[in-house]
What does this fold into?
Amino acid sequence: MAGTLWKGRATTAMVDLKGTVISTNDLRWEMNVWSLFLLKVCIEFKSEKISGNVCRSISGLNLLSAVEAELSASLANKFSREVKVDGFANVNIRQASF
It folds into this structure.
């Protein structure tokens, strides 16, 4: 890992999503300093499998925008018992909040 919170790079990164580990290589990020004036922290990220923007507002709301990812389709099996899938899926999230 190299860089700072403002801008940096990691050779590998992993996220645990409901027991499924998603790993990616060459993750890069850059904080949008102007977002601090809107009382939120926004980071643009990009790697070989996923890219987009993530923000956290002062109220605790998480915002995703322009997220594009190539993930294992079997990840959907964690959310549904009726359907079983395999292979890879492209995911595009224009905007989401949680």
Notes: The mean pLDDT is 85. The chain has no helices and seven strands. The longest strand covers residues 20-32. The radius of gyration is 15 Å.
